[in-house]
C-alpha cells in the first residue's frame, strides 16, 4: 500500500476527522440529521413504528463481478463491448442480460452503481468490503457479520449465528472481536454439516463425557484460568456450546434436501442456489449473518463468457432468495447485499477480459428498510471519467446497513490495542432507504 | 555407433519344445514372485516403522547424554536473573508455587521448541536419566534436534513475512524459512541474520534473505517495487518491538511520542530498493516523497531513524546503514524485542504484552532488560538466551497451587510465580495430536509413511482449526468449530480408531498386559504424566472386565477423552 492523505482513516482512531464530524464541528447543526444517531432520534421523535432488521445475508461475488454485465449496463456504448441489457419491473432501470428473473423483483432491490474503493488487490479489497475498513498492520477489523453478532447477541440461537456457506479463500473473520466471532464455515448444503455428528453412539458418548469430567476435575484442581478471559471462552464452555449445537433442531435449517423440490429448485440446482435457500432457512432459525459465496468472477480472460456462466447461477438464486424471504415474511427483517470486492475495467484487454476496477462498481441491496427500485449513482457511459456520479464509499455502505439493523455506527468499541474504534466510518445513504 | 549391428549379430537361442519349458519357466516365475514379495515386505518393514514390542520385546531406554556442567560465567548470569525474580516476589509479597514434575517441564520445552510433545520413547529416556540432570539433558537434547530449528524458523518467519504465499514469481517463502532454519541450527548470531535480511540484495532463489524484501512487492504491479511502508512496519514490529507504523497516517494521538514524520523517515531507507533482472537492488536515484497530513504538497523525506540517532552509521548504502543501526549491540530495542518474543514462545505469555509493543523509555520488567543486555553482550546468541530462560526457576514452577491451598491467582501468573496457562497454537495441537497417538518419536528418523501422515493430517487439521498466521502469539479464544473438530473430526477419528500400524491406542490394547499398564501408557503419551490414583481406579474399573474388541474400543474412548481434555489443549 502506498501511503497518501487518502489513507486517512486507516488507522481508525476516533480522532480522525470524517466528513461528518467536520460538518458538525463547523457548526452546521442543521445537518445533524445526517448522523445515524440523529436519524434514530428523529425516527423515534416521529413516533413511527420502525422495526430494524435483525439479520443480514451477504451474497459474496468473489473475484469481482463486472458492473457492466450485471447491475450497471451501458448497452450500445463502446464500453459494453456488445453486452446487452434488459428492462426490469422498475421503469427506466435496466440490468445485464441474463438476469431475467432478478428483473422481475427489481421493485424490491436498490442498486448502488457508484461504489468506490482504493483497493485493487483481491485480498485487500475483500478485507475492505467485508469489514468496511482498509487493511492496516496494527489491527484486524471484524467483518460486518461479526459486528452484528457482537452488537445484537445470539438471541438464544443454539447454532452459530455467523455462518459462511461455500466459504471463499478469505471467509468473514471476527478480527479484534475474537475468533469466537469468526464465521462458522459450511460447504454445499447437499452434504452434511461437518463434524456435528458424534463420533460414538449414545451410550459410548455418555461414557466418554463421564470419563472426561473425571480428567477435567483433576486438571482444574489448584488451577485458575485467566479471569480476564470471558467465561464463554473456557475450553469446557465451548465444548458445551458445541454439544448444544450437535443436538439442536435448528441444524435442520441446513438440510435443504428435505424441503419440497419446487421450492428448492427455484434457487437453481447448484451449490450456490442450495446455499441461498439454506440462508433463508437459517434466517428463519434466527441466525444473524450468513455469507454465501459465488466465486470465479475474476474474468481477466473471456469476460463475457465467464459472466454469462456465473449469471446463470446467480439469477435464479438471487430472485428466489428475495421472493422466498418475502413469502415467509422475513424480507423486512433481513438486509440482503449482493456484491464483490471490486468491479471490472470499462475497457477490454487483449484476451477479451476485463481487469480489476475499484473506481466505480455496483452492489444490489434488498430487504429491511431498503428502498425497492431505487438507484444511486452511475459510472461514466463513455468510460473516460474514472469517477462515477454520486460516489459511495465502502464505509457508507456499512454505515447504512448497520443503521438498517438499528445499530449506532458511531458507537465505539475498545480494541485490544487500546484504541477505540467506531463500528463503521461513513454516511447513511438516504437515497436507497425506504 | 556399432552397438546396433553388434546386437543384431547376437545369435538367438534355439526354440525349445513347449513341453520342456513349461515347468522350469513356471518355477522361475514363482521364485521371482516370491523374491519380489520378500523385497516388498522388507521395504514395508522399513517404511512403516513397525511397532516396537508388537513383534519383539521393547528394548530398555537409553538415558539421555548428560551435558557438561555449566560454565561459571553463565551460572553467575543465571543467578543474577534468578535474583530479579526472587526480589520481585519478595517486594510484592507473592509466594511462588512449588516446582512442577520433571515431565511437565519436559512437555513445556518440547512444545516451545519442537511444537510437539515428548514421545513415549523419549519419556522413557528422560526417566532413565538421573533426576538432577534431567532438565539440562532434555534441554540440550532438544536444542540439538533438527525439529527445534525448523519450528523456531517457522515462528520467526511468521513475524518477519507472515504466512501468505505472497507475490508470485518474486517471493519464495520456503527458501527464507530454510535459510532461517540453517542459521538457527548452526547457532548463527541473530543480529547477523537480521542484518542480512534488511540489507539483502540479489535474487530471491539464490539469496533467500531477499525474500524479506520481496514479500512486500505488490502482487498487481511488480514495477512498483518493494513497499517501503510495509517494510518499515515489519522492521519496527518484528525486530524492534515498537509500533511506529501506527503513525503512518497521523501523529500519535494517544499520548505516545511518535510523529507521522518518524515513520516515513524510517520508510525512506527502503525507498531506493527495486526489483531488477539481477534481483533486489538499490536505485540511488529513487528518493522518497510523501505528503504529510494537512500538508499542501509532497516533500522529499530525509533518511532518519526514530530513536538512538547516534547509532546510525554516517555513510554507506541506506539499507546497510539501517541494518547496522537496527542490530547494533547498543540498540536495546532490538535485543528486548527478541527476548520478549522468545519468552513468549517458551512461557506462552510475553514479558510485555503485546509482544511487539515494548516501551522505549520504560518502565519495563527488570528481567527483560537483564536478559536483553546479556543477549547483546554475547553476540545475540539465541541458544544462550534459550538456556538462560529455561534455567530460571519460573520455567520450572507448577501451574497449579498445591493441595489444599486456593487456586493459583492471576497475580501469581503475572509475576511468574506460577507457570501461566495458555492455549496451544493450532499447529502445536496438530503436532501434539500426531505425536500422542504414536508410540515412537515423529522426527526425521521416523518411518517415511508416518512422517507423511503426520504432515498431511497436521496441515489439514491446522487448516480446519484455523491458522492464526502471524497473529499466532495473540490471545485466541476457542471456537465451536474447533470443539466440533476435536470431538467429532476426521483426523481425531483416524488417529484413535483401531489401527495396529499407526495408532497408539490400538497398539497399547495389543501390547499392554494389564489395564493399569494400558492406562498409564495412554496418559504418558497424551498428557506426559501418569494418571492420579482416582483416574487410575476409574478407568481400570471400566477396562478390567473387557476383552478383545470391546477392550480396544474402551482404549479408543480413553484416547478420545484425553485428547478432548483441557489439559491436552493447553500449555501448563
Tell me the fraction of residues in β-strands of chain A, as a range: 5-15%
Which pair of protein chains has the largest interface, and what are the residue counts? A-B, 72 and 78 residues
How would you sum up the global shape of chain B? globular
Helix content of chain B: 40-55%
The side-by-side strand order for the widest beta sheet of chain B comes to 1-2
Described by strand count, sense and barrel closure, the largest sheet of chain B is: 2 strands, antiparallel
Average pLDDT metric of chain A: 87
Order of helices and strands of chain A: HHEEEHEHHEEHHHHEHEEEEEEHEE
Helical region count of chain A?
11
Number of strands of chain B: 6
Oligomer: heterodimer
Low-confidence stretches of chain A: 1-33, 227-233
Q: Sketch the major β-sheet of chain A.
A: 9 strands, mixed
Shape of chain A: globular
What's the rounded overall pLDDT mean of chain B? Answer: 85
Secondary-structure class of chain B: mainly alpha
> Helix segment count of chain B?
27
Terminal CA distance of chain B reads 73 Å
What is the first-to-last residue Cα distance of chain A? Answer: 38 Å
Report the radius of gyration of chain A as a whole number of Å.
23 Å
Beta strand count of chain A? 15
Descriptive account of the structure:
With 434 residues, chain A is of the alpha/beta class. Chain A contains eleven helices and 15 strands. In chain A, strands 1, 4, 5, 6, 7, 8, 11, 12 and 13 form a nine-stranded mixed β-sheet that branches. The longest helix of chain A has 25 residues, at 303-327. Chain B is mainly α. Chain B contains 27 helices and six strands. Chain B has helices at 3-9, 18-48, 72-92, 102-114, 120-128, 134-143, 146-161, 173-185, 190-198, 211-214, 228-239, 260-267, 318-327, 332-347, 366-377, 382-391, 393-396, 410-414, 426-436, 448-465, 480-488, 490-496, 504-511, 515-527, 533-543, 548-563, 566-569, and strands at 273-276, 279-282, 289-290, 299-300, 422-423, 570-571. In chain B, the strands form three sheets. In chain B, strands 1-2 form a two-stranded antiparallel sheet. Chain B has a two-stranded antiparallel sheet with strand order 3-4. The longest helix of chain B is centred in the first third of the chain and has 31 residues, at 18-48. Chain B is globular, with a radius of gyration of 29 Å. Classes of the chains: A alpha/beta (434), B mainly alpha (572). At the A-B interface, helix 6 and helix 7 of A face helix 11, helix 21, helix 22, helix 25 and helix 26 of B.
Amino acid at each position: 500500500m502506498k501511503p497518501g492523505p487518502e489513507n486517512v482513516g486507516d488507522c481508525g482512531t476516533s480522532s480522525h476527522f470524517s466528513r461528518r464530524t467536520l460538518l458538525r464541528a463547523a457548526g452546521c447543526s442543521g445537518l445533524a440529521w445526517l448522523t445515524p444517531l440523529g436519524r434514530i432520534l428523529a425516527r423515534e421523535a416521529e413516533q413511527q413504528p420502525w422495526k430494524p432488521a435483525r439479520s443480514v445475508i451477504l451474497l459474496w461475488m468473489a473475484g469481482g463481478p463486472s458492473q457492466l454485465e450485471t447491475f450497471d449496463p451501458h448497452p450500445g456504448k463502446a464500453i459494453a463491448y456488445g453486452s446487452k441489457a434488459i428492462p426490469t419491473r422498475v421503469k427506466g432501470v435496466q440490468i445485464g442480460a441474463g438476469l431475467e428473473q432478478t428483473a422481475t423483483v427489481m421493485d424490491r432491490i436498490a442498486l448502488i452503481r457508484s461504489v468506490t474503493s482504493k483497493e485493487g488487490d483481491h485480498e485487500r479489497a475483500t478485507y475492505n468490503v467485508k469489514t468496511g475498513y482498509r487493511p492496516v498492520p496494527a489491527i484486524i477489523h471484524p467483518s460486518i457479520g461479526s459486528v452484528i453478532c457482537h452488537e445484537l447477541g445470539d438471541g438464544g440461537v443454539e447454532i452459530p449465528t455467523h455462518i459462511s456457506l461455500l466459504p471463499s479463500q478469505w471467509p468473514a473473520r471476527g478480527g479484534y472481536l475474537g475468533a469466537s466471532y469468526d464465521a462458522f464455515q459450511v460447504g454445499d448444503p447437499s452434504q452434511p454439516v461437518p463434524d456435528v455428528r458424534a463420533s460414538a453412539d449414545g451410550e459410548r458418548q455418555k461414557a466418554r463425557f463421564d470419563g472426561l469430567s473425571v480428567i477435567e476435575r483433576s486438571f482444574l484442581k489448584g488451577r485458575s484460568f485467566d479471569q480476564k478471559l470471558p467465561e464463554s471462552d473456557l475450553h469446557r464452555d465451548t465444548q458445551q456450546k458445541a454439544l448444544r449445537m450437535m443436538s439442536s433442531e435448528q441444524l435442520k435449517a441446513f438440510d435443504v434436501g428435505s424441503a419440497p423440490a419446487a421450492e428448492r429448485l427455484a434457487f437453481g440446482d447448484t451449490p450456490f442456489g442450495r446455499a441461498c435457500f439454506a440462508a433463508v432457512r437459517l434466517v428463519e432459525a434466527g441466525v444473524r449473518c450468513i455469507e454465501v459465496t459465488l466465486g470465479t468472477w475474476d474474468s481477466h480472460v473471456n469476460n463475457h463468457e465467464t459472466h454469462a456462466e456465473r449469471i446463470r447461477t446467480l439469477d435464479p438464486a438471487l430472485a428466489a432468495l428475495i421472493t422466498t424471504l418475502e413469502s415467509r415474511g422475513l424480507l423486512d427483517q433481513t438486509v440482503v447485499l449482493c456484491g464483490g470486492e471490486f468491479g471490472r475495467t470499462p475497457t477490454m484487454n487483449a484476451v477479451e477480459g476485463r481487469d480489476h476496477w475499484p473506481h466505480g462498481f455496483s452492489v444490489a441491496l434488498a430487504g429491511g428498510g431498503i428502498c425497492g427500485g431505487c438507484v444511486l449513482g452511475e459510472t461514466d457511459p463513455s468510460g473516460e471519467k474514472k469517477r462515477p456520479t454520486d460516489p459511495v464509499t465502502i464505509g457508507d455502505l456499512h454505515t447504512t446497513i448497520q443503521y438498517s439493523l438499528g445499530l449506532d455506527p458511531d458507537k465505539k468499541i475498545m480494541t485490544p490495542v487500546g484504541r477505540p474504534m467506531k463500528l463503521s466510518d461513513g454516511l447513511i445513504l438516504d437515497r436507497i432507504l425506504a | 555407433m556399432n552397438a546396433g549391428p553388434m546386437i543384431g549379430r547376437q545369435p538367438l537361442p534355439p526354440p525349445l519344445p513347449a513341453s520342456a519349458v513349461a515347468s522350469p519357466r513356471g518355477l522361475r516365475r514363482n521364485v521371482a514372485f516370491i523374491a519380489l514379495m520378500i523385497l516388498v515386505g522388507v521395504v514395508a518393514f522399513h517404511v512403516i516403522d513397525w511397532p516396537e514390542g508388537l513383534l519383539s520385546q521393547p528394548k530398555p531406554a537409553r538415558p539421555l547424554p548428560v551435558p557438561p556442567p555449566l560454565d561459571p560465567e553463565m551460572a553467575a548470569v543465571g543467578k543474577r536473573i534468578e535474583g530479579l525474580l526472587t526480589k520481585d516476589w519478595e517486594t510484592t509479597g507473592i509466594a511462588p508455587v512449588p516446582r512442577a514434575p520433571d515431565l511437565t517441564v519436559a512437555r513445556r520445552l518440547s512444545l516451545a521448541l519442537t511444537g510437539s510433545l515428548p514421545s513415549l520413547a523419549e519419556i522413557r529416556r528422560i526417566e532413565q536419566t538421573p533426576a538432577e540432570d534431567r532438565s539440562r539433558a532434555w534441554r540440550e537434547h532438544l536444542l540439538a534436534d533438527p525439529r527445534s530449528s525448523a519450528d523456531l524458523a517457522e515462528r520467526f518467519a511468521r513475524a518477519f513475512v507472515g504466512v501468505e504465499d505472497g507475490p508470485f514469481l518474486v517471493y519464495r517463502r520456503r527458501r527464507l524459512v530454510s535459510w532461517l532454519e540453517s542459521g538457527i541450527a548452526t547457532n548463527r548470531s541473530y543480529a547477523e541474520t537480521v542484518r542480512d535480511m534488511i540489507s539483502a540484495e540479489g535474487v530471491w532463489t539464490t539469496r533467500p534473505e531477499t525474500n524479506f524484501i520481496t514479500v512486500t512487492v505488490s502482487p498487481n504491479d511488480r514495477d512498483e517495487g518493494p513497499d517501503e511502508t510495509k517494510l518499515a512496519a515489519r522492521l519496527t514490529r518484528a525486530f524492534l518491538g515498537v509500533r511506529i507504523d501506527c503513525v503512518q497516517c497521523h501523529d500519535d494521538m494517544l499520548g505516545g511520542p511518535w510523529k507521522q514524520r518518524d515513520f516515513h523517515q524510517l520508510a525512506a531507507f527502503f525507498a531506493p530498493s527495486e526489483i531488477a533482472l539481477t534481483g533486489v537492488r538499490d536505485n540511488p536515484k529513487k528518493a522518497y516523497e510523501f505528503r504529510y497530513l494537512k500538508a499542501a504538497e509532497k516533500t522529499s523525506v530525509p533518511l532518519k531513524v526514530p530513536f538512538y540517532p547516534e547509532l546510525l552509521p554516517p555513510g554507506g548504502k541506506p539499507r546497510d546503514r539501517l541494518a547496522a543501526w537496527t542490530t547494533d549491540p547498543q540498540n536495546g530495542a532490538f535485543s528486548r524485542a527478541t527476548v520478549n518474543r522468545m519468552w513468549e514462545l517458551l512461557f506462552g505469555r510475553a514479558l510485555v504484552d503485546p509482544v511487539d509493543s515494548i516501551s522505549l523509555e520504560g518502565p519495563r520488567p527488570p528481567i527483560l532488560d537483564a536478559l536483553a543486555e546479556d543477549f547483546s553482550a554475547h553476540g545475540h546468541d539465541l541458544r544462550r538466551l534459550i538456556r538462560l530462560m529455561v534455567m530460571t526457576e519460573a520455567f520450572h514452577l507448577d501451574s497449579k497451587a498445591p493441595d489444599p491451598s486456593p487456586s493459583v491467582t492471576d497475580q501469581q501468573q503475572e509475576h511468574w510465580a506460577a507457570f501461566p496457562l495458555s492455549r496451544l497454537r493450532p499447529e502445536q495441537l496438530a503436532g501434539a495430536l500426531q505425536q500422542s497417538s504414536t508410540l515412537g518419536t515423529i522426527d526425521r528418523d521416523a518411518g517415511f509413511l508416518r512422517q507423511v501422515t503426520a504432515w498431511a493430517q497436521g496441515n489439514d487439521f491446522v487448516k480446519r482449526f484455523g491458522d492464526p498466521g502471524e497473529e499466532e502469539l495473540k490471545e485466541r479464544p476457542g471456537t465451536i468449530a474447533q470443539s466440533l473438530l476435536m470431538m467429532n473430526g476426521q483426523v481425531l477419528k483416524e488417529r484413535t480408531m483401531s489401527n495396529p500400524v499407526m495408532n497408539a491406542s490400538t497398539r497399547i490394547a495389543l501390547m499392554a498386559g494389564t489395564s493399569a499398564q494400558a492406562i498409564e501408557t495412554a496418559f504418558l503419551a497424551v498428557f506426559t504424566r501418569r494418571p492420579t490414583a482416582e483416574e487410575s481406579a476409574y478407568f481400570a474399573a471400566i477396562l478390567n472386565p473387557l476383552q478383545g474388541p470391546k477392550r480396544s474400543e474402551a482404549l479408543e474412548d480413553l484416547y478420545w477423552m484425553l485428547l478432548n481434555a483441557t489439559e491436552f489443549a493447553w500449555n501448563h
